[in-house]
Amino acid sequence: MAVRLITTIQRWNGTAADNKPVENVKEGSTFSELDTGRQFVWINKEWIEDLSGPLTVSRAADIADSQRRLLENILSELIAANRARGIDLKEI
To answer: pLDDT digit of tens for each residue in the chain (92 aa)?
Structure first.
């Protein structure tokens, strides 16, 4: 990552349904979703979720669910690829 100057940080609040600003946003600015508690930081002309904040039970559950879905997709693709090669793996 290149060094980036952070000046005049802007802080916005809104909800998950709101469109986050994209015009004239200063590097390092933040957006807080008041209804979800999620935090975002403006980096390289895009909003990136800030995962360094407090981990709530609901966020932990969301992260665990995302990881489970990702693992299920990887396993499904692995099983399908092996079946295509004639290798039959038992589904987990």
So the answer is: 677 777 788 999 999 999 999 999 999 999 999 998 899 999 989 999 988 766 566 666 777 778 888 889 888 888 888 888 888 776 54
Domain extent listing, the chain: 1-53, 55-92
Residue 75, φ and ψ in degrees, nearest 5: -65, -40
Q: Which long-range contacts (CB under 8 A, 24 or more apart) does 19-25 make?
A: 20/47
Dist CA 71 CA 61 (whole Å):
15
For residue 58, what are its two tokens?
Answer: 């609901």
What residues contact 78, with CB distance under 8 A and at least 6 apart?
A: 89
The DSSP annotation for 14-49 comes to: E-TTSPPP-SSPPTT-EEEETTT--EEEEETTEEEE
